[in-house]
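Hey, can you fold this one?
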Amino acid sequence: MQLQERINAFVKLGDFIRQFSNTNIRKDEKVEHNALFFDGFKHQLKLAEEHNGWFTLENITFALNSWADALTPENLSKWVQPYDFSKVTPKTVAIIMAGNIPLVGFHDFLAVLITGYQVLVKQSSNDKHLLPFLAKYLEYVAPNFKGNIHFSEENLEDFDAVIATGSNNTARYFEYYFKDKPSIIRNNRNSVAVLTGNESTEDLQQLSEDIFRYYGLGCRNVSKLFVPKGYDFNPFFEAIYHWHPIVEKAKYANNYDYNKAVYLMSEFDMLENGFFMIKEDESYSSPIATAFYEYYDSLDALRTKLKAESHQIQCIVSKNFMENEVAFGHTQKPQLWDYADSVDSVEFLLAI
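Sure. Predicted structure:
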């Protein structure tokens, strides 16, 4: 397949996905192969929600909307433009996917196929319904993809490189197990927000999207706040209050109740509003329904700290604080060229 053929296939996939990009699912008669795939994918959404309580229809459709917005001719062409695909030789790349949020491994899947390689996917058991169906759709709109997409539930064999995502413990296992293969190994990272006290109500409302989307389970979710000494948290709590219905979801409520009980029994100081807690803590990774916060003395000292600890951080949400910051409300809307852990996966693939 030529590069443009691969781009065209993913554009058609984006058109198909767009039908499911909000909870009011609507069929578009102009989309190719809808007679074969529309009802089937609608059923896969239902299965995914039933299988994983964190995958609500709202969160699944939010993820699908993000990918529909990404898979446009303009975005795909802009993404691939800097790379030279002319010397690609056939290779197979294994992807071991996480399952914390819907379709979290799709970018790796896309990168391998857009490069012209075969992909061998090992999915998380938490997110196993959506991607195989979308892969089938790809094979229909671009039959040359047939034979290039493989899924496996067994040990992975016969591949040339690997992209693996897991916990810190799993990542150490991956590094040892795949030590003889070109690899990208990803482990736990978290995202932070830097507040100065000058944020508008709208800024803080946008920040709540970065905190609560996907119940805070993604590495791009903000789990830590850096605030100046004497910071008044009242405007923050007021701005995020529109998310209070989240506590009506049983899995979230159970985590909120449990973590609140732990903090109270341990006599930790924390602030809470009935559905969310903040606790002073130096760690980056906070439990569900909780954000940690830490005071800073100066913005310059904080920049130095965050640069030194960048290996623990996925995104920094702020306003005119530092280079490569993410705007409030945009952590879960990455562009195709916003690579996880700032590692260019296409560049890695082309260098295999």
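The chain has a mean pLDDT of 97. Let me know if you want another pass with a different chain boundary.
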